[in-house]
Automatic annotation (TrEMBL):
The gene is hemL. Its main location: cytoplasm. It comes from Chitinimonas lacunae. Homodimer. This is Glutamate-1-semialdehyde 2,1-aminomutase. The modification N6-(pyridoxal phosphate)lysine is found at residue 265. Signal peptide: none annotated. Pathway: Porphyrin-containing compound metabolism; protoporphyrin-IX biosynthesis; 5-aminolevulinate from L-glutamyl-tRNA(Glu): step 2/2. Its cofactor is pyridoxal 5'-phosphate. Belongs to the class-III pyridoxal-phosphate-dependent aminotransferase family. HemL subfamily. InterPro entries: 4pyrrol_synth_GluAld_NH2Trfase, Aminotrans_3, Aminotrans_3_PPA_site, PyrdxlP-dep_Trfase, PyrdxlP-dep_Trfase_major, PyrdxlP-dep_Trfase_small.
Length: 426
């Protein structure tokens, strides 16, 4: 039995499912999850000593790769000064200043410890600010695991949401309205009917939790104009896209100024840190200034802030993001070429340093189209790539991530592996 298998068996004794977050269990692709011992640059090594080119990057945060010396130095220096104070520090101000300088929509920002906390808090704030209860989300978008966001579409047009997890009260889910991504007609109809009850629209501005899906220009425009017209807030959940699709995030690429933005992943450089921020008049409703309560023992943790600042510093250097984007495009173009060359329904897309791989003829534009792709072929492709030393997200519904330390040689090696893997699964 491999060490990975031994560890997975041992893990299941005292950890539910053997993992601390469900997708890690390989439930969707089957097989034994890899237990990692070490990461360096673009590579990770598992418990059996196998090396992989890593395109998960801890699900997005590691945009400068594993154990970047500048990030490590910053983290070690901060840790040596104290792990946590539960009191303000100067570094928090530096991070807030930097975030507000990078994103024009951020006038004020508050730090939290996870993306879930950021979206949950942003929604409470939107409800507190507008005095309305209903929120709108889109099918296939994930915004963390707060009750009001674990909601799927009800049956029939414009019905109220149903819980997508046991333990979520139906009454909570009923205030979440779920629509198809990229469906302008339904969004307009919903605002027409319930516009004065809607506190906020929350969206993944490029969806990354149903694989990578781009929004249409009309959809982007409709979300901004409808929320504005009806007095609702537009929340860009940039936990994944923030500093991943570009230095000015998805909102910069869209040319949209959302009312609130949530950030996570890259902003913490691999440490537990996330943020939400936006309009000063909205943020002023937060405690201690206003009546909307929100707090955290470890919020703005100095070690996490140090990792975030060091990471943002690295990717802000001139030319870094352009090169990163080019390399990601190289990967997606190469994968598209392979699909055509080998005549398999297989394609790819990328935005900035984020990419999608689809076992389908065309890049999908909605959750319905994504779920119609060939999941069985993806699973075989995933395992073939794993055997060839390439670690992709263990699910057909996740985006992939390239870092600044993936080299042209790494991309080339990945495309070689993909050629061989596609031949196997054809
Ligand atoms: N929003 C988005 C868009 C995400 O991708 C995620 C995590 N994948 C979250 C929120 C939740 O973040 P966390 O896992 O840090 O709670």
């Amino acid at each position: 039995m491999s060490k990975n298998q031994q560890l997975f068996e041992r893990a299941q004794r005292h950890i539910p499912g053997g993992v601390n977050s469900p997708v890690r269990a390989f439930g969707s692709v089957g097989g034994t999850p890899r237990f990692f011992e070490r990461g360096q640059g673009a590579y990770v090594w598992d418990a059996d000593g196998q090396r992989y080119i890593d395109y998960v990057g801890s699900w997005g945060p590691l945009i400068v790769g594993h154990a970047h010396p500048d990030v490590l130095e910053a983290v070690q220096a901060a840790a040596a000064r104290g792990l946590s104070f539960g009191a303000p520090t100067e570094a928090e101000i530096e991070l807030a200043d930097r975030l507000c300088a990078l994103l024009p929509s951020l006038q004020q920002v508050r730090l939290v410890s996870s993306g879930t906390e950021a979206t949950m808090s942003a929604l409470r704030l939107a409800r507190g600010f507008t005095g309305r209860d209903k929120i709108v989300k889109f099918e296939g978008c994930y915004h963390g695991h707060a009750d009001s966001l674990l909601v799927k579409a009800g049956s029939g047009l414009l019905t109220f949401g149903n819980p997508s997890s046991a333990g979520v009260p139906a009454a909570v889910a009923a205030d979440t309205l779920v629509l198809p991504y990229n469906d302008v007609v339904q969004l307009e109809a919903l605002f027409e009917r319930l516009g004065d009850q809607i506190a906020a629209v929350i969206v993944e501005p490029f969806a990354g939790n149903m694989n990578l899906i781009r929004p249409s220009a009309e959809f982007v425009q409709a979300m901004r104009s409808l929320t504005e017209r009806h007095g609702a807030l537009l929340i860009y959940d940039e936990v994944m896209t923030g500093f991943r699709v570009g230095l000015d995030c998805a909102q910069g690429l869209h040319g949209v100024v959302p009312d609130l933005t949530t950030l996570g992943k890259v902003v913490g450089g691999g440490m537990p840190l996330a943020a939400f921020g936006g309009r000063a008049d909205v943020m002023a409703r937060l405690a201690p200034l206003g009546p909307v309560y929100q707090a955290g023992t470890l919020s703005g943790n100095p070690v996490a802030v140090a990792a975030g600042l060091a990471t943002l510093e690295l990717i802000s250097a001139p030319g870094v993001f352009a090169t990163l984007t080019e390399r990601t495009t190289l990967l997606a173009d190469g994968l598209n070429r392979l699909g055509r060359e080998l005549d398999v329904p297989f394609c790819a897309d990328s935005v900035g340093a984020m990419f999608g791989i689809y076992c389908a003829e065309r890049v999908p534009t909605s959750y319905a189209e994504v779920t119609a792709s060939n999941r069985e072929r993806f699973n075989r492709f995933f395992h073939a790539m794993l055997d060839l030393g390439v670690y992709l997200a263990p699910s057909a519904f996740e985006a992939g991530f390239v870092s600044t330390v993936h080299s042209d040689d790494d991309i080339e090696a990945t495309l070689e592996a993909a050629r061989s893997a596609l031949r196997q699964v054809k």
